[in-house]
Amino acid sequence: MSVLNTVPFEKFHGTGNDFFVVDAEDPVPDRPAFARTHCDRQGGIALDDSNRRGADGVLFLALESRYDPPRVVMTLVQPDGSVAAMCGNGARVAAAWAAERTDSDEIMIDTPAGTRRASLDDDYVTVEMGAPSFDPRDVPLESDEELVEAAVEGLTITAVNTGVPHAVAFVDDVDDVDLEAVAPSIRHAPLFPEGTNVTLASPDGDGGFRQRTFERGVEGETQSCGTGAVAVVAAAKRLGHVSGDDPVRVSPPGGTLSVTVPDEGSALLGGPAVHEGDGEADIVFRER
User: Fold this and answer.
1) Catalytic, out of 141, 225, 235, 242
2) What residues form the catalytic site here (predicted)?
């Protein structure tokens, strides 16, 4: 591995789901190598006032302020070097980053999963997430049938795509499950040809859900997962655990999110997006 020079970055998090943000105008020739190097939780970047190294991904953002509302092109490169089609908390961070530069409270976000509209109220960001799909072609599944409350590698799973695939399991208490132990076999199950995120949910006793997610691309549990929170509510509606179009509170370890999954149309994800600090990172590339 060689170092070319440095690039400025900003660090944001959405309910603990943290990202390095790099302006796409600043060239990073090998984005996968950059993400693998700097997102590493053991040897990656740590801000001066934080002992937590690394991040859950790098957001490369290209602002197109000439549009009304302004647009930002979002590319999320994950710690394993892969590109995620959608990331709910990442989209909220992208909106906050773009809003800082445009003074706009409405931002359009272009992602590989489609264009999403975000609205801001101070540091609280609500973003459209698209319509969840249980269609096996959309998840995708190696099956012609939807996967709803089916046994997969020891858990009862409902599979849904909320921009990326999720295998959702409702359990009595998310803390009673060793997620790091049970998730990898589901994440790599042959039923999921592109792999899947693995999300646990349990009722919080007040109409909402607690959530834990093992993320594909991070290859471990994250403090929050926005697409996972939407998947929880979408699956809960499908199974009759909730009904109607009212917002549902979902609580991952890193905070609280608000999720609305209407009977028709786009789901909504709301929560805070927090700017943690700034720094500079080495630009690296892998020698061939």
Assistant:
1) 225
2) 87, 225
3-state secondary structure of 210: strand
Q: Is residue 268 part of a domain?
A: no
Contact indicator for 213, 230 with CB cutoff of 8 Å = no
CATH label of the domain that carries residue 136: 3.10.310.10
Give the residue numbers spanning the domain of 40.
2-129+273-285
Asked if 10 contacts 20 with a C-beta cutoff of 8 angstroms, the reply is: yes
Q: Which residue numbers belong to the known binding site for substrate?
A: 17, 78, 88-89, 197, 215-216, 226-227
Q: Are residues 35 and 82 in the same domain?
A: yes
Whether 287 shows a pLDDT value over 60: the answer reads no
Name the nearest CA neighbour of 191 among 236, 139, 227: 139
Single out the catalytic residue among 87, 93, 120, 273.
Answer: 87
pLDDT tens per residue, range 4-31? 589 999 999 999 999 999 999 998 999 9
Q: Structurally, how many domains does the chain consist of?
A: 2
pLDDT at 135: 98
For the question of residue 39 being annotated catalytic, the response is no
Average pLDDT, the chain: 94
For the annotated binding site, the residues are 17, 78, 88-89, 197, 215-216, 226-227
